[in-house]
Design a protein that fits this description.
Oligomer: single chain
Largest sheet: 14 strands, mixed
CATH topology of the largest domain: TIM Barrel
Number of domains: 2
CATH class of the largest domain: Alpha Beta
Radius of gyration: 22 Å
Structural class: alpha+beta
Shape: globular
Helix content: 10-25%
Number of strands: 29
Distance between the termini: 26 Å
Number of helices: 7
């Protein structure tokens, strides 16, 4: 079994959005293991007030008709891009509802029929009658019930084993979760959050997807799902979703292992008065907090786990380093070709974390690509859009943010980096990077820039905890892990449930 990373909720110009399906799939293949290109399809209870919702109807009815007309082409395109074990595509479409909340329908199938219904249960039934074994899974659940937030009264864990708790809309984990909602659809309602659903006794796992409409699946910072799969196929992805072996992440590929008396992510275990807990996290930057959230029908508690001391003192070994390009005056799109070499050390891993760089190139050839990775160096090219004003992470319909290459570097006092790019050439030692980040502009005032982050030593992003665990005494017990990093990114492991 292995971890793969996916964006299972991404839109493009099919229905409404930007960019072709071909372009979206090419973008996804540059930095993801799996993707689903989702078409907006139905909204049975759409508000039909011509005075206040005419624009909403024009947008959605037009998008639904486009999706219906392009559905055969989208299906063929998605199927042609699917390569088991290398890049997996999963068909899906979106079903909207004021009362029940928005859901996506998925199936491990070459042909997912476009079918409408009045309720999620009826939608599942119609798809089964058509010969597919569907998942019908809610997203942006944190909006108010009756206003496209989740309806817990109609929730079925067999139909929806995993809920999308993070996307470009924000986080719907809980009231105290990072990234509150910032869309025009409304506020984050506590009663609709995932933690409230767990306290109510519902069982489900966590996932995250961008829900962006720009033809750029996996936009870093807008949501990705980690799946612990037996095989990297459509069937393997659906099996992992049904088993709740998932991690929801704002973007980084954070590894989380949680074990309670032998039960892992998404599983259930018999409650004992004294249980054994083991937690391990492998982040991508220094971890500033990792919280164990424990609850039952009576409520919840947040139990922070201990962290090691952080220090600027250099320690030889593995370090996590980010090389980021972007910035510049508002609206600037900068073009980058970066070559980084390590002298006196070696690169153990290189992971691209790319972002959408603007609608202007939505239908052009993919502009982000990794061209070389080995122990000595890495090279890539990317377009970067300046950071959106007022929102450093970008929002639902905004491009922006730096393009990132994440490195794990093994080195000592004699190790240094040599980076060449449009910002010129710079060379910096690993011991200096262990103290602070360095960067340089590609031009004058407010020009785009390249920044090499502080090198975080392994002890800051690889954590372990083991010990006795006192479970909650009431019915409906659960626990899950939330991780927050120094770079502002976060991840959530699917809960373990107590029988």
């Amino acid at each position: 079994m292995r971890w793969i990373w996916a964006d299972l909720h991404a839109h493009c110009a099919v229905s409404y959005g930007f960019g072709t399906a071909e372009r979206a799939l090419a973008n996804a293949a540059a930095h993801l293991d799996a993707v689903s290109i989702t078409g907006h399809a139905f909204w049975p209870d759409i508000p039909t007030d011509l005075e206040g919702n005419d624009g909403t109807m024009l947008k959605h009815f037009g998008g639904f008709e486009k999706n219906r007309r392009f559905w055969p082409h989208l299906t063929r395109t998605v199927n042609a891009a699917n390569v088991d074990g290398r890049f997996t595509t999963l068909p899906s479409y979106e079903w909207h509802s004021m009362r029940y909340g928005d859901h996506n329908a998925y199936a491990a199938s070459d042909a997912l029929p476009l079918l409408d219904a009045d309720t999620p249960a009826a939608l599942e039934r119609r798809l089964r009658e058509a010969g597919v074994d569907p998942l019908v899974m809610p997203h942006h659940i944190g909006y108010a019930t009756g206003w496209r937030g989740i309806d817990w009264d109609s929730f079925d864990p067999d139909r929806s084993p995993v809920l999308e708790i993070f996307s470009s809309h924000g986080s719907s984990e809980a009231d105290d979760a990072p990234r509150p909602y910032g869309e025009n659809m409304g506020f984050r309602q506590g009663a609709s959050t995932a933690r409230d659903g767990l306290v109510a006794g519902h069982r489900f796992g966590f996932q995250a997807g961008t829900d962006t409409h720009d033809g750029y699946p996996g936009h870093y910072g807008h949501g990705r799902t980690g799946l612990w799969v037996r095989e990297a196929t459509r069937e393997g992805i659906v099996e992992a979703l049904r088993a709740r072996r998932t991690i929801a992440s704002t973007g980084p590929h954070v590894g989380i292992d949680l074990d309670l008396d032998g039960a892992g992510l998404g599983q259930a275990v018999t409650r004992r008065d004294a249980m054994e807990l083991r937690a391990a996290v492998r982040g991508t930057d220094a971890i500033v907090r990792w919280d164990l959230i424990v609850g039952d029908r009576s409520g919840w508690t947040v139990r922070p786990l201990p962290l090691p001391e952080r220090s600027s003192a250099f320690v030889p070994g593995r370090h996590a380093v980010r090389i980021e390009t972007g910035w510049g005056r508002h609206g600037t799109i900068s073009r980058w070709s970066v070559r980084a070499r390590v002298h006196g050390g070696r690169i153990e891993a290189a992971t691209p974390y790319f972002r959408y760089a603007g609608h202007g190139n939505a239908d052009a050839e993919p502009t982000e690509a990794v061209e070389r990775v080995d122990e000595e160096g890495v090279a890539w090219r990317a377009h970067a859009h300046s950071v959106p004003s007022g929102d450093r992470g970008g929002t639902h319909h905004e491009a922006g943010g730096p393009q990132t290459m994440h490195l794990i570097v093994d080195g000592d006092e004699g190790t240094d980096f040599e980076v060449e790019s449009e910002a010129g050439r710079m060379r910096v030692g690993l011991p200096e990077l262990a103290r602070r980040s360095v960067g340089r502009f590609a031009g004058g005032l407010s020009a785009p820039a390249l920044v090499v982050s502080r090198a975080a030593p392994e002890r800051e992003w690889t954590l372990e905890h083991a010990g006795a665990f006192a479970p909650p005494a009431g019915e409906g017990g659960f626990l899950y892990l939330r991780v927050v990093q120094a770079d502002g990114q976060a991840a959530w492991a699917s809960p373990i449930f107590l029988d």
